[in-house]
Amino acid sequence: MKIHQIEIQKFKAATNNLHGQVLFKVDALVSNREPIDGIEPSSLLVMTEQNARVLMALLKTQIAEFDAKKPKSRHGRHG
User: Fold this and answer.
1) Domain limits for position 53
2) pLDDT (average), residues 10-30
3) Which of 14, 24, 41, 70 has the highest CB neighbour number within 10 Å of its CB?
């Protein structure tokens, strides 16, 4: 498995699809990352605090869109 460091420069757009996936258009720097002995190899996603805040806002919007597409219960809450 190849591992990378993906540094987000800018979030450009977010959307979702019928497969339940959230898709992001981003500007990013991607570089190969050397595995460290004794640690499971993993890719890293790196971003600034400001980009993390943008990501949270975009995710909140996309989750709300998923929720809006779900059928509403006709019987109210159970419990």
Assistant:
1) 4-69
2) 95
3) 14
